[in-house]
Structure to design on (429 residues):
């Protein structure tokens, strides 16, 4: 999927270039792994570390289990201690009959205390032989470096748009303190516009799904439509997420929401929209993260300056005493650097890091750092401009290791067919 490329820089965008600066010469970018089809293709989920410093992720395509581009992989990268990394494909999806193990994994993996990995696939699963509605899966490490995949839940078939349990989950999933898993599906549910779900484990190893909320239950989908992106918990157990559309904004399909789900008695949850977007304050929100003061930050991929087709922004939601939330734009993006997407992360000093899928020297995205300030827009530092040779389209956010180095994936570029099959990269300050 290739996004619209902006070819002309406006005069106002040139004037605003001085608001950003490039990283110092001491910042280095390194490709740790090139994907080339059989070992994976088009990574579309972020990375995760284990306790030993190994990296894990997924690719949307690739592997050898399916014909054509393959149905996706889960991979491990092991450091050799001398700066090199060795990739191991730990699972190829659609390796079971009728793709009962799922295909097209999306979103970052998460781990439990035992080192098991969890994620979702966009399609597949036992409930729909050829077009199952996706899965939540578990990968269990064995003593001989093998991994076993278990499907925890298979969603209903894509052929039923109003199937109650939802279909086509969009990762990542998240654990609560009791070991239950939470996530979203982009479609399905009572109204067909996606759900938030919970999976509860039993002592026998089975998992039971409960739909916490079905979207578009009010007029004009004022409660949200098409939930995508990560879910986050606050300190008292409320759950927060984003929808790409809905909310009653003035976009053609509305501009999206940030929603809150509050747990009640007997397993019920109450949804409310805490921010509704309307192009001038952003559109298509994604990638929520809390700071240490309880403020919620996220990226809007479009909107802001420039109206419906603005270039995106980073927003902050500040809670008030009356349960209201106030949105503040901390950074607008302009034509030269635009399209923020993927999860955001903070460092210990309160700087905010992320990626854009457009802009930079080669118009294939940047990795950036935002430095907080008391008022006005946060200054932006470009850490890296992506290019076809070393990776492009970094849509999945960044993570830190214990030394403060940044890691991520670029969905295209490097080696392989067409525009390249993607890379895993490291940025060292």
């Amino acid at each position: 999927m290739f996004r619209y490329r902006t070819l002309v820089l406006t005069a106002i965008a040139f004037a605003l270039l001085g608001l950003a600066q490039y990283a110092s010469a001491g910042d280095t970018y390194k490709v740790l792994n090139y994907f080339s089809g059989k070992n994976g293709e088009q990574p579309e989920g972020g990375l995760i570390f284990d306790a030993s410093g190994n990296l894990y992720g997924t690719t949307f395509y690739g592997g050898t289990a399916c014909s054509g581009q393959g149905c996706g992989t889960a991979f491990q990268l092991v450091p050799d201690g001398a700066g090199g990394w060795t990739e191991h494909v730990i699972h190829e999806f659609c390796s079971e009959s009728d793709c009962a193990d799922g295909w097209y994994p999306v979103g970052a993996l998460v781990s439990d205390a035992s080192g098991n990995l969890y994620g979702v696939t966009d399609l597949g699963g036992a409930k729909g032989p050829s077009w199952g509605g996706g899965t939540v899966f578990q990968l269990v490490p064995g003593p001989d470096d093998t991994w076993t995949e278990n499907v925890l839940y298979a969603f209903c078939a894509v052929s039923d748009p109003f199937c109650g349990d939802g279909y086509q989950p969009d990762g990542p999933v998240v654990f609560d303190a009791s070991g239950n898993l939470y996530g979203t599906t982009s479609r399905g549910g009572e109204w067909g516009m996606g759900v938030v779900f919970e999976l509860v484990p039993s002592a026998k190893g089975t998992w039971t799904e409960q739909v916490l909320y079905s979207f578009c239950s009010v007029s004009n989908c004022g409660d949200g439509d098409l939930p995508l992106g990560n879910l986050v918990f606050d300190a008292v157990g409320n759950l927060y997420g984003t929808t790409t559309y809905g909310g009653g904004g003035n976009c053609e399909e509305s501009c999206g929401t940030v929603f809150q789900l509050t747990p009640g008695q007997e397993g019920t949850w109450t949804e409310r929209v805490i921010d509704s977007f309307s192009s001038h304050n952003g559109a298509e929100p994604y990638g929520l993260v809390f700071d240490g003061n309880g403020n919620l930050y996220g990226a809007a991929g479009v909107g802001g300056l420039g109206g419906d087709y603005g270039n995106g922004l980073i927003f902050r939601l500040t809670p008030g005493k009356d349960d209201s939330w106030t949105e503040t734009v901390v950074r607008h993006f302009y034509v030269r650097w635009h399209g923020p997407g993927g999860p955001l992360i903070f460092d210990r000093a309160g700087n905010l890091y992320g990626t854009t899928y457009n802009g930079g020297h080669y118009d294939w995205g940047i990795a950036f750092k935002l430095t907080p300030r008391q008022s006005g827009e946060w200054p932006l530092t470009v850490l890296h401009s992506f290019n076809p040779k070393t990776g492009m389209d970094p849509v999945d956010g960044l993570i830190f290791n214990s030394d403060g180095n940044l890691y991520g994936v670029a969905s295209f570029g490097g080696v392989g067919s067409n525009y390249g099959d993607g890379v895993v990269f490291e940025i060292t300050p």
